[in-house]
Design a protein that fits this description.
The chain is an alpha/beta fold. The chain folds into two domains: 12-224, 2-enoyl-CoA Hydratase, Chain A, domain 1 (Alpha-Beta Complex), CATH 3.90.226.10; 229-275, Orthogonal Bundle (Lyase 2-enoyl-coa Hydratase, Chain  A, domain 2), CATH 1.10.12. It has helices at residues 36-51, 75-84, 94-112, 133-139, 167-174, 178-187, 193-199, 210-224, 229-244, 247-261, 266-275, and strands at residues 12-18, 21-26, 58-63, 122-126, 129-131, 143-147, 151-153, 191-192, 204-206. The strands form two sheets. Strands 1-2-3-4-6-9 form a six-stranded mixed β-sheet, sandwiched between helices. The mean pLDDT is 92.
């Protein structure tokens, strides 16, 4: 069976346009607004990919809708979470309601941050409107491309809350202009792809719209998919650890990681391929499950 077998769901289409590369397309008309079932399916997809033995070496996340990435959370879903939580059950008192809501928020955070769990890089390619929750999606991915049409907003203050799913946690570690980040988070002002590039939120502005930015992201994913899975997965883990720890702590982590990882057969295979001027052939990180 193919790499993308059984991964698609109601609003998420998963395909394998390039060997070892998955394309995850978000498609809930008319504006990709996210009710609970939608973001839960997104989290379940990447959690499953992190657990299963599929030989995925890179993934691209995009919107299937031609004019925009997402308008953010579905307002009806947001109201449900604040009033009754994901279970919809009214609690006995405020303390119990708060504990229940705390758990719901953490579930939300885990779902949107689930690309961080994967051993492979996740590239997000956005176009058009990227509002509220869309910025959370972007900030939790490893590599971020935007079409020149992209327009962003950290929108949560406009509906009376501090962004709680990832933007305010990831972005201070991602962007280089904290003054600009504070300005945008407090005001919910729109900012464009060039602004996002200037502050460090994205690494590339792609001329054109949806098709062009997806093409660029898939091209990069195809390059990454030719590299050693041991090297790429280790690089991702070490970069994530470095983001959240001091330099001495990260150096210790790298030493421990590479004490095992340097024993890979990928190194001699990579050297032979370079000498023989051919593409290297690397084994999967894990044996696939019987379903694959």
């Amino acid at each position: 069976m193919g790499l993308a077998a059984d991964l698609s769901s109601q609003w998420i289409k998963v395909s394998e346009p390039i060997p070892h590369v998955l394309h995850v397309e978000l498609s809930r008309k008319p504006v990709n607004a996210f009710p609970a079932e939608y973001w839960q399916a997104y989290g379940a997809l990447f959690t499953r990919l992190a657990r299963e033995g599929r030989d995925v070496r890179a993934a691209v996340v995009s919107s299937a809708l031609p004019k925009l990435f997402t308008a953010g959370i579905d307002f009806a879903s947001a109201a449900d979470i604040t009033q009754g939580g994901l279970s919809g059950v009214q609690q006995v008192d405020d303390a119990r309601a708060s504990l229940s809501l705390h758990g719901d928020i953490q579930e939300y955070q885990r779902a949107i941050g689930s690309p961080q769990l994967c051993h492979f890089p996740v590239i997000i390619a956005v176009h058009g409107l990227v509002l509220g929750l869309g910025v959370d999606f972007v900030s939790a991915c490893d590599i971020r491309y935007a079409a020149e049409t992209a327009q962003f907003s950290i929108k949560e203050v406009d509906i009376g809350l501090a962004a709680d799913v990832g933007s305010l946690s990831f972005l201070p570690k991602v962007v280089g202009n904290h003054s600009m980040l504070h300005e945008l988070a407090y005001s919910a002002k729109m900012f464009n792809a060039e602004d996002a590039l200037r502050m460090g939120l994205i690494s590339r502005v792609v001329p054109g719209g949806r098709d062009e930015v997806i093409h660029a992201a898939l091209e990069l994913a195809g390059i990454i998919a030719t590299k050693s899975p041991i090297a790429v997965s280790g690089t991702k883990r070490i970069l994530i650890h470095s983001r959240d720890h001091s330099v001495p702590e990260n150096l210790d982590y790298v030493a421990a990681w590479n004490a095992a990882a340097l024993r890979t057969q990928d190194i001699p295979e990579g050297l032979r391929a370079s000498q023989e001027k051919r593409r290297a052939s690397f084994a999967p990180l894990r044996k696939p499950t019987s379903k694959l």
